[in-house]
């Protein structure tokens, strides 16, 4: 009887170290193991290491490569693959273990022994002066920690720790779900009962009685063990040039929301690095495979705010669908491109430069009551935001928080400016992107354009005007599972009263949150959050937003002048490449295109290959260092991010906000600048550098 092959994260990442020929040999070996592990050519034998799970076995791939595996019933777990001695060394201290909640994981006893030794404690003797740590101050008891499945010695130690860095380092010996639970308790954000209930799997009733087949279905087991669906999928995964963990290992919250059935629109909010886009891609796969199937003629739309992100998502959807053997019926497109496609012959020519020039012309035609900047601020925050095209709509619009109160007569006077502006637009054929959305919405509401899609997933929705969101959703048939919106409220450009009033959808009871940053280290995440909030109070969401991955502190450095700053960045890039960092895994971020262009000439001088990620260009297109504007890095990921000219972010915000009568307008725009830097910082997976000129 053939074995079910289970891939572990440790196996996949060790596989990446092998060359292509060795990978092919590994595939051949696994095929044999799947059929019959007793085949003599596999040379299967126990592991000769003092501390190692006695059920671990080694299989021969070639004269030098060994594959470490574990068999339990009908399942064969691929654990690790490497050159002879390195493969056996990995086994030392490793044991298969099950948590008190039924999740299987690989436990490292040597890491535990080292930690206890450094902490000054052993199982037999606890030699330390008891102090009150953060957990105990938060009202957490030893008994409660033990209830989470934590050994008494660790419970005692954890209760004494009052240092964030030491706490994060200590909990690394536990599986990820326990690390997250302990961080929630340490930060005082959740009561013990809440944490205890969250870590349980409602489908697992008796954790101590479940067999391996049931444990593999446990929500947290699936973070690190993946049961391959076919030999074709296994070959695809093992022969890939690179491996993206997100394609097979999902956080339980991601998997839950990807596969959930909902009767109406669903909203998922989360900060950078929490996996919103990954969730959307897996949601598309679930819908195509189970709900809106291509063989039934169904179509799924995946929209995001830029062409670059659309291409990045499309490439990853192709990758996931190919891996899973799903026919692809998902159309991925940038929002403005989608609206233009839908309008077809009705498409309006867009020129934001001409539009703003026209607005200045209309303002010059007579003496208006308010300054020019007031009218433009009103246009972007109210008129365009809600897609207002008539006086009645404007008279009924909610202007809460606009700073300048307008009674009915004043609104009529202000509307006269917009009426003339719209009249001139029509005469000259000048439009904005939102005008296109208004046109599309008009055609769908009139029934002249019928909904062509069965479902839509909208990524980075916080960057879209409500009018654009309404236009997109109007192109989708109503029904269960038809709308998923992915957003980050902390990056929101447009204030939203509610999804019902501004976008026309009801997400009450179908709003979910992602809190864990999977990409960025705690040190980078903490720095980015400090930049965003600048010591101010965090909102409820950000209090729970966290990363449990440890790394290096960001390097923040000032320089005497721009020339010294650019030369220092070049030196950093050269050092990173010499260290083995792939050039296209380094991204230098700039506040504007002018600063980027200056730096390109410096790289040319040093013969460093580079590529500007503009329009729909993505990191995979580059064999050199990536360069990007701050607003263009959204949705991407790099091992190293360098935020350059940090002192120049927001310099474009001038006194133009001082004469509009809204004292908070400038602060709101400055907050958007902070959000942009926050997003740029959290694109870094391992290292973050921030440079600026002093004075």
What does this structure look like?
With 695 residues, the chain is an alpha/beta fold. Helix 22 (466-473) links the parallel strand 12 and strand 13. The N and C termini lie far apart (73 Å).
Number of folding domains?
Answer: 5
Structural class: alpha/beta
Q: Summarize the amount of helix as a percent range.
A: 40-55%
Strand order of the largest sheet: 2-3-4-5-1-8
CATH class of the largest domain: Alpha Beta
Stretches where pLDDT falls below 50 for ≥5 residues? 122-128
- State the fourth-level CATH superfamily of the largest domain: P-loop containing nucleotide triphosphate hydrolases
**What is the 3D shape?**
globular
Helix-strand layout with pairing:
Elements (H helix, E strand, L loop, with lengths): L3 E5 H7 L4 H16 L9 E2 L9 E5 L4 E8 L2 E9 H8 L2 E5 L5 E5 H11 L14 H4 L4 H6 L4 H7 L5 H7 L5 H11 L5 H8 L12 H4 L9 E3 L3 H8 L13 H8 L6 E5 L5 H15 L9 E5 L2 H18 L5 E5 H9 L8 H13 L7 H15 L4 H5 L12 H21 L4 H13 L9 E4 L7 H8 L9 E5 L11 H5 L7 E4 L7 H12 L6 H5 L10 E5 L2 H17 L7 E5 L2 H13 L4 E3 L12 E5 L8 E6 L21 H17 L2 E10 L2
Parallel strand pairs: 1-5, 9-13, 9-14, 10-11, 10-12, 12-13, 15-20, 16-18, 16-19, 17-18, 19-20
Antiparallel strand pairs: 1-8, 2-3, 3-4, 4-5, 6-7
Helix pairs in contact: 2-12, 9-10, 13-14, 14-15, 16-21, 17-20, 21-22, 24-28
Keywords:
single chain; 695 residues; alpha/beta; YaeB-like fold; Rossmann fold; 5 domains; 6-stranded parallel beta sheet; 28 helices; globular
């Amino acid at each position: 009887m053939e074995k079910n092959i289970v891939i572990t994260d440790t196996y996949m990442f060790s596989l990446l170290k092998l060359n292509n020929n060795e990978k092919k040999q590994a595939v051949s070996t696994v095929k044999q193991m799947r059929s019959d592990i007793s085949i003599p050519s596999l040379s299967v034998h126990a592991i000769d290491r003092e501390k190692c799970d006695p059920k671990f076995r080694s299989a021969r791939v070639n004269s030098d490569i060994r594959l470490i595996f574990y068999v339990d019933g009908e399942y064969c777990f691929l654990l690790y693959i490497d050159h002879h001695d390195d493969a056996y060394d990995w086994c030392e201290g490793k044991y298969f273990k099950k948590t008190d909640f039924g999740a299987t994981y690989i436990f490292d006893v040597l890491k535990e022994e080292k930690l206890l030794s450094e902490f000054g404690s052993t199982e037999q003797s606890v030699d330390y002066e008891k102090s009150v740590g953060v957990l105990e101050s938060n009202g957490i008891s030893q008994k409660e920690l033990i209830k989470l499945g934590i050994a008494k010695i660790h419970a005692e130690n954890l209760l004494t720790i009052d240092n964030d860095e030491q706490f994060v380092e200590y909990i690394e010996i536990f599986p990820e779900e326990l690390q997250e639970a302990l961080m929630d308790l340490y930060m005082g954000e959740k009561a013990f009962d809440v944490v205890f209930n969250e870590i349980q799997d409602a489908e697992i009733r008796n954790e101590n009685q479940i067999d391996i087949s049931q444990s593999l279905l446990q929500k947290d087991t699936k973070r690190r063990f993946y049961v391959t669906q076919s030999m074709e999928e296994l070959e695809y995964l093992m022969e890939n040039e690179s491996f993206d963990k997100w394609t097979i290992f999902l956080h339980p919250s991601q998997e839950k929301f990807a596969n959930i059935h909902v009767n109406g629109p669903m909203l998922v909010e989360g900060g950078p690095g929490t996996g919103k886009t990954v969730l959307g891609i897996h949601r598309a796969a679930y819908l195509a495979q189970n709900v809106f199937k291509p063989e039934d003629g169904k179509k799924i739309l995946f929209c995001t705010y830029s062409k670059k992100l659309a291409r990045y998502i499309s490439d990853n959807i192709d990758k996931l669908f190919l891996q899973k053997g799903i026919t692809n019926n998902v159309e991925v497109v940038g929002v403005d491109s989608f609206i233009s496609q839908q309008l077809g012959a009705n498409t309006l020519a867009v020129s934001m430069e001409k539009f703003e020039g026209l607005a200045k012309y209309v303002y010059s035609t007579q003496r208006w009551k308010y300054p020019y900047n007031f009218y433009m601020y009103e246009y972007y925050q109210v008129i365009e935001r809600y897609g207002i095209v008539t006086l009645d709509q404007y008279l009924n619009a909610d202007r809460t928080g606009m700073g300048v109160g307008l009674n009915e007569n004043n609104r009529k006077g202000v509307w006269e400016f917009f009426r003339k502006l719209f009249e001139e637009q029509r005469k000259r054929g000048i439009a904005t992107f939102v005008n296109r959305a208004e046109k599309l919405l008009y055609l769908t509401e009139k029934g002249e354009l019928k909904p062509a899609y069965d479902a839509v997933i909208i990524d980075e929705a916080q960057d879209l005007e409500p009018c654009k969101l309404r236009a997109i959703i109007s192109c989708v048939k109503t029904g269960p599972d038809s709308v998923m919106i992915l957003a980050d409220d902390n990056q929101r450009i447009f204030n939203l009263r509610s999804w019902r009033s501004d976008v026309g959808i009801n997400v009450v009871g179908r709003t979910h949150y992602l809190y864990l940053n999977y990409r960025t280290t705690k040190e980078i995440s903490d720095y980015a959050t400090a930049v965003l909030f600048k010591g101010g109070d965090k909102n409820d969401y950000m209090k729970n937003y966290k990363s449990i991955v440890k790394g290096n502190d960001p390097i923040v450095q000032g320089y005497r002048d721009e020339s010294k700053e650019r030369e220092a960045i070049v030196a950093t890039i050269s050092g990173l490449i010499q260290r083995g960092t792939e050039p296209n895994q380094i991204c230098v971020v700039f506040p504007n295109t002018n600063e980027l262009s200056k730096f390109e000439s410096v790289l040319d001088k040093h013969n460093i290959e580079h590529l500007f990620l503009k329009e729909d260009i993505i990191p995979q297109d580059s064999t050199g260092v990536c360069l990007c504007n701050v607003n263009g890095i959204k949705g991407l990921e790099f091992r190293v991010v360098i935020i350059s000219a940090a002192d120049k972010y927001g310099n474009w915000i001038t006194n133009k906000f001082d004469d509009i009568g809204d004292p908070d307008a400038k602060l709101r725009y400055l907050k958007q600048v902070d959000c942009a830097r926050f997003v740029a910082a959290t694109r870094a997976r391992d290292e973050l550098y921030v440079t600026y000129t002093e004075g």
